[in-house]
Structures are given as structure tokens and as C-alpha cells.
Amino acid sequence: MLPLDVTSEESAEAAVKEVLRLHGRIDLLVNNAGFGVAPAAAEDSSIDHELRMMGIRVSVIEPAYIKTPFDANFMAPDAPLDAYREVRSAVDKRVKEVVEGADSPEVVAETVLQAAIAARPKLRYAAGGLAVRLRLLRRFAPAGLVDAGIRKDLRLRDVDSATACETT
Description:
With 168 residues, the chain is mainly alpha-helical. It is 49% helix and 5% strand.
């Protein structure tokens, strides 16, 4: 085990150097940083969160809600826009509610293992029942319908209505 602060470039570089010193190469990296920026992450974040591909094969593990203290680790946006203040608050509240009945972390661990040992890993893996259902919906349902369902689940319609009333 090596200490690694994912918010510190120096810490990440030190951990990589130590692994390379000890083992000569990195075969597998599970980036499970345990933080999130939501909603409007791209608009609320500067280019310094941007990642570049460097010839590394990537598989994306896509869980839905997982019963962990993930919501306690939300990072505040580095360039917050006041227009998203109410949405951020509503999403934070809803995430706390749904995490209580979510899949266990073992569901994600099993999916990571599946990807790690695959001879030809897939680009994307859905982890857990809700994630599989959401993936199927995205595949077969119109995008607008899927987006509406997600907004409804996150109760964003209520926030939109309140914001519209304030601005008129």
C-alpha cells in the first residue's frame, strides 16, 4: 500500500515513481478516487481536471448508486456557477437518500475483477442491477426519455420549476 492523495499531482507522481522503482512497470490501475463533481462537472471545472490519453487502454466501470460514503467526498467545484447552486443542493440531498438502498461495493469489485482478468477487456462495464437497466434504457430508449427519467429520479424538475419562478 502506498499513500496517494488524488488531489495532489506531486503525490500521484511520487506513487507512480515508487511503483515503477519496486516493480518496473504498471499492469493495472484501478482509479477509484472516491470523489465526484456534480452536476455540470465540465462547466464547473477548469481545464486542470482534464485528462489526456497516453496510449493506455481504459475500461470504464459504470456503477449506479453504491452504498458507500461517496456522497461525503463530493468536491466543491473550482469555478462554481451560481446558476447551479440549487441543483447542487437538490442532487446532494437525493444522493444521500438513494445511497441507503443501493448495491454493495462488492458489486463494483466483482466487475473490476472481471475487466482486469479479461483477455480482451470491453470499453464499458455496467456494475449492478440499476446500472445494467440504465445501460439498456440508454441503448433502446430515446435520449430525451432517458434524460427525463434521470432528472425525475434526481428530482430536478422541482428545482427547474422553482428557478423558473424566481427568474420570471
